[in-house]
From TrEMBL:
Listed SMART domains: BID_2
Organism whose genome encodes this protein: Phocaeicola plebeius
Record has DNA repair as a keyword: no
SUPFAM superfamilies, per the entry: Invasin/intimin cell-adhesion fragments
The keyword Transmembrane is annotated on this UniProt entry: no
BIG2 domain segment(s): 42-118, 130-205, 216-293
InterPro entries, sorted: Big_2, Invasin/intimin_cell_adhesion
Protein name as catalogued: DUF4979 domain-containing protein
Alphabetic keyword roster: Signal
Position of the signal peptide: 1-26
Name of a matching Pfam family: Big_2
């Protein structure tokens, strides 16, 4: 088994701040004494991995901290969901009683903050780590100065009781390493990092990583001088760089308006608010001649660009999909349809709705792939776009014709079908969409009467969901993707 990013410390709780207000008598001359303001616990952080294995008969005390630090009453209450497997006392001492799994929870003694939990896995024996190997080739064990490298590893045996490793750099002046096994180059040379098992035997092994010197950037520009983003979109810009193997991790990024477009150290843009910002990338090698390039970024009203590469804003609506999975590594939604009498059906809904501006983006399109021949043999298939909440006349798109069934046009895009609505041509229920920024609380795409043979196991995949400035812009993208 390969382990990557396996240590996640802490169980956060949602903040809830409560205060006791001073009480004043209705009679202005009689004022009750002020009550001392109480500061309640808003967070309880457990210093433990999400799953904690314990050997039958052993015990341990969980370390924790509360926020804010000036809480009036820092007392907490511990509870075990299965005390016959793992018990816990008022001090947070957990005793492993019987093999199995138990959930230990902790909550404030005063207040209503969300409970923090940890899963206790009680085992009859501990399987110790006997060896650690990196699941990487020699060429992969190289990193440039300023760049980062995620280590991948395997343990022997592959299913240890305590799979978490403790990482340490033995040459921090050459490279550092995080608790998750991410190595960052500091200066050229050979770095040594040490991995130690966190079980009782503490098996240790050292590894070497080559840190290569920076390859300086000579020329730098953005492929696009300007682009439009959707609110909430994560965007990775394309760069023209010479030489082609220059070290991009040396770039420093800056946004003129981080409240509009935020940019992280890896050059990922995050659209935070409608507006315009200029993002600048700079390579400064301390020679007095920094190299930089800038890009104009517009966060546009009405633009949707849900491509499922970095995030997913859609959910299974009313449980209609038997299976609903966001496959981030493939950048798709993978759906297995649920029952629709003798047929199958899917319904998906955009989480939180969407702010349309059909004056800017009147086309809403869904790119969908069916299992082979399913679309063609589903002669009775129906599809709808349903929108309500925030509209004076919410309902089906194109409802005045066939109750909205097949109101969305369909275009071929290789193995995919693109279903699209044009809000300049058809109404939503009885009215046209307003030509201004308009929040719609519920946006639902649904397909009914899908014919699946009894042995069909293929999924229906959604590649992207986008808005477009025109039908021509949609068809232009389809033609590009066909290539």
């Amino acid at each position: 088994m390969t382990y990557k990013n396996i240590l996640y410390k802490g169980c956060a709780a949602v903040c809830l701040i409560g205060t006791m207000a001073s009480m004043v008598s209705c009679n202005d001359e009689m004022v009750s004494p002020e009550m001392n303001e109480k500061v309640l616990i808003s967070d309880i952080n457990l210093d433990v991995t999400p799953v904690l294995p314990l050997l039958v008969g052993s015990d341990t005390i969980l370390n924790y901290s509360v926020l804010p630090e000036n809480a009036s009453d820092k007392g907490v209450i511990w509870k075990s969901g299965s005390p016959e497997i793992a018990s816990v006392d008022e001090e947070g001492r957990i005793k492993a009683v019987h093999a199995g799994t138990a959930i230990i929870s902790v909550m404030p003694a005063v207040g209503f903050a969300v409970t923090s939990t940890v899963e206790i896995k009680v085992v009859d024996e501990i399987i110790f780590i006997e060896d650690i190997n990196l699941d990487m080739t020699e060429n992969e064990l190289e990193v440039y100065e300023t760049a980062s490298l995620q280590l991948r590893w395997q343990t022997i045996p592959s299913d240890p009781t305590y799979p978490t490793l403790k990482w340490e750099s033995l040459t921090p002046e050459i490279a550092t390493v995080t608790e998750d096994g991410v190595v960052k180059g500091v200066k050229a040379g050979t770095a040594r990092v040490k991995a130690t098992a966190t079980d009782g035997k503490h098996f240790t092994k050292e590894f070497t990583i080559t840190v290569k010197p920076i390859i300086f950037i000579e020329t730098l520009s953005f492929v696009k001088e300007s682009d439009k983003l959707a609110l909430g979109e994560v965007y990775v810009p394309q760069l023209n760089v010479k030489p082609g193997n220059a070290t991009l991790s040396a770039l420093k990024w800056e946004s003129s308006k981080p409240e509009v477009v935020e940019v992280d150290e890896n050059g990922h843009f995050i659209a935070k608010k409608y507006g315009t910002a200029v993002v600048t990338a700079t390579a400064d090698y301390g020679d007095g001649n920094p190299i930089s390039a800038s890009m104009n970024v517009i966060v546009a009203e009405g633009k949707m660009n849900d491509s499922f590469e970095f995030m997913n804003s859609w959910e299974n609506f009313n449980g209609q999909c038997l299976e609903f999975n966001w496959l981030e590594d493939q950048g798709i939604l993978s759906l297995f349809p649920g029952a629709d009498k003798n047929y199958k059906a899917i319904r998906i809904k955009r989480t939180g709705g969407f702010e349309f501006n059909v004056a800017n983006y009147p086309i809403l399109a869904f790119k969908v792939r069916f299992p082979k021949d399913v679309f063609e043999v589903s002669e009775k298939m129906e599809w709808y776009l349903d929108m309500w909440g925030g509209l004076s006349s919410g309902g089906k798109y194109g409802a005045d014709t066939n109750k909205g069934n097949k109101a969305m046009e369909v275009l071929d895009c290789g193995d995919y079908k693109v279903f699209y609505a044009d809000f300049t041509k058809k109404k939503v229920n009885t009215e046209m969409m307003p030509t201004k920024l308009q929040k719609v609380d519920n946006v639902v795409f649904e397909i009914w009467k899908i014919w699946y043979e009894a042995d069909e196991t293929g999924t229906i995949d959604v590649d992207w969901i986008k808005t477009f400035e025109s039908e021509e812009a949609l068809k232009s993208l389809i033609n590009e993707e066909k290539k």
